[in-house]
Structures are given as C-alpha cells and as structure tokens.
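Hi P.,

Sorry for the delay on this. The queue was packed all week, but I finally got your sequence through. Input first:
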Amino acid sequence: MSDNSLDPAPYTRRVATLPPGVPPGPGANAHLHSPVVPRHPRLDPLADRYAARTHGMKTSEIRALFSVVSRPEVVSLAGGMPAVTALPLDAVGSMIGDLVSGMGAQTLQYGSGQGDPRLRERICDVMALEGITDASPSEVVVTVGSQQGLDLVTRVFCDPGDVVLAEGPSYVGALGVFQSSEARVRHVPMDDDGLIPEALEQALLECRANGDRVKFLYTVPNYHNPAGVTLSEPRREQIMAIADRYDLLIVEDNPYGLLGFDREPMRALRARNSQRVVYLGSFSKTFSPGLRVGWVLAPLAVREKLVLATEAQVLCPPSLTQYAVARYLDTQPWREQIKLFTELYRERRDACLESLEAMMPAGTTWTRPEGGFYVWLKLPHGLDSKLMQPRAVNAHVAYVPGIGFYADGGGREYMRLSYCYPEPDQIREGVRRLARVIEAELDLHSTFDSVDTGTFRAVPRAVPNHTAENLVGPANSDHFEDGRA
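Then the structure:
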C-alpha cells in the first residue's frame, strides 16, 4: 500500500503571494514558493505549521557527505577542513589551560554582544595585513564563525524577494543563508581572473529593468570557494567603480586572503572604500575552525544593527573561544604559523595539480589556484558529477558535486576538489581513483552515444574538445581563451 493511501489528502495547495513591500513587475514572481507543498500529517503532525521559508530547505552537498568521508577507506577530496594538526597543539593546549585557570571568572562568563574589546583590537591588526589600516575596533562585531556574520548581514539587509548578486559558482554556505532569508540569488559569471565586471554591470542593468531590488553583491575575491580563482587587481578597481555608479553594497567574504602561495596578501576591497564594503573575516582557516570565531567589519550604523541581531540570535558570542583567540594572537607566532600553513597547502596543491595533469582523461579541465583550498574541475562533455557521485564513493573517493554551488540548479558538469586535508600521497591516490571513475563514465557514454536505439545504426562520436573552455560557470564559455587546463 502506498503512503498516499493512508491519507486521502496528502498534499495541501499553497497560494503564493508577494511578500509585503515587494513591487509587482517582470521579476516579481521569481521568488515565489512552489504552489504545491507536500504534507503528510501522519509522518509529521506539524507539517502544515512550518514557516514558508522552510519549504525550500535542503541538505548541503557537503554535509551530506560527512558519513561517507569519515570512513577510513575513502579518500576525501570533498570537505575544506584545515590541517589543524600543523598547529603546535601542546602549546595551544597549555595556553587554553592557563587561560581558564587564570581567568576562569571572565572566560566562562557572559560577554558583550559585540565581542571582547581586546580581540577586536587584534582583529584590526590582522586586517592591516590586507591593507585595511583605517579600521576601528568599534566597527568590529565578533561572530560565531564568519557564517554567522553572513547570516546577520543578510538578516539586516534582505527582505523576502530581494536580489543578492553572487558569483557563479558561489560558496554553498552563503547560498543556504540567502535561501533561508527568502532572497533570490542572481549569479554573475567568473573566469580565471574572478568576477567579470562587464557581467556584473549587465546583471545590475537587467535587475533595474525588471524592477528587482538588489541588496548587495556577495563575493569571495581571494582563492575563491569553490572556483579557486582570485579577483585580479584591475578588476578590483573596476568593480569598485561599478559599485559607486550603481550605489551597490558589497559583502566581501575573505577567509582565505592570507593563504596565498606565491604573493603577499592582496589589498582588500574594504581597503578601497570603508562605506560601501562590509567585510567578513574568520580564524577558521588560519587558526582553528573548531573555535568558531569570525567577525564582521562594518560602518557604525550597520554595526549597531548587527549587534542587535546578534543579541537576538545568540545573546553574545562565546567568551572562552574569544579569549583563546586573543591570547593566541598575543602570545604565539601566528604570522609564522600562517606561513607554515601556506607551505603545507602549496605542497598539497602541487600534488593535486600534478596528478590531475598526469591522470585525467582528455576533455577534463580545471582551475589552477594560487592559494586557498580548492580546485574547480569540469568534466568531459555529457558527464554529470551528481549522477556519477555514487560510483565515485563506491570507488572510495569523494568530491562535492558542482550543483551545490549554484542556486539555479546549474553546475552538474563541475565538481569541487579540496586538497587542504589529505596528505600528498592520499591526494594522488584519490585523483587516480577519480580518473578511473571518469574514464568508466566516458566508456559508458561512448557505448550509448555510438548506437541509435531506434534503428540500431552506428552514429558518429563527438570529437573531444581539449581546450579549457568554461572552467568556472555554465554560462561562461566565451570567457576563457588561454586554453589552460
């Protein structure tokens, strides 16, 4: 007996309406919820009480892999987990123990909604490495990781139906935040040099023509997650000029900016305009993700609203982790530690790129990151990374399908490979396994493509294209001319 037979009305019809304040227009209906929402009171008696914003919630492509990548036989090229074992763990452990024994009354107590003043001072020192020399501790709000910072910024600025411009592809955690706020994401294409300024301006013009309210541009300019590319210096100036012309707010998410392999940190967008850029930072990639300490640097008026939103959400960020990060910055050689991290990640990046070059079948292309954690790989024509994923897991290798990095369902021909966590030999073995899976998929497609199932006549096979076109986005094939793999 099917589940539907248990309930004569297993579905309830929802009439979609515009949120208050959203003007009608050509783009007004793009954000509406599906008119039919599944409901089964015997499976979930509270199903028809949930808020509308929950109907589109789905598991992250990355989180869905956790049970798989924890298996010892699986080489995970999926999660972007920092190599925390490279930290001086004994020294860090002693530091935290001394902190609790000497300052327990403070470290274990409630704190300020804005965050510890000493930590905010040290955060300004960290940002100065990227050219942000005018930041004041009073403009900094400490958050539970930069993820909470992004959530707070989105809550403060976005109403249902508003448009957020974001690179295509874009960080999966950001897409989840925008979806939960019922904002619409409009992807802007990228290429090897990052976000394309002309495409950004075109998106702004189209949104204006449609009557869409664009609240901000969300960008990861350095060592992009997932694409691995970095916004070039000329384009940074172009994008800031566009922001001035169109009165565009920019949310700059920069967890990887200090992790460049062959260059000094690039000058942040926030260093170019203190009023038009809200900056998100994190200690997850340069110290410890488990401490969950990040921050937002924002103009004072925005800071006030972020503090109020923080107090409503978590009351205050955890005191112990804030004191731990501040003590680490005060007492440990953290700049040298970052250099150690970059050397380690460079070695692993090289192992990944060399293995891809040696083992991947023709027609596979990928980006060449100059820092950070990720390679963005495009499969040969006709392959689908999401459909291929179970066979890869069966071959004991894991990756993140590209579909998770697009709000519009695109990206199936892409995958994100992370080289930050496995040792170089594991990376090489993981790439070898992945190459075999892709080759098997190509053989399977070749078999079906070479037969006309209606008449059983042989049909010509397509000649593989070896140029590295369209490395980053599904609408970007015209933006790659150098033929890099």
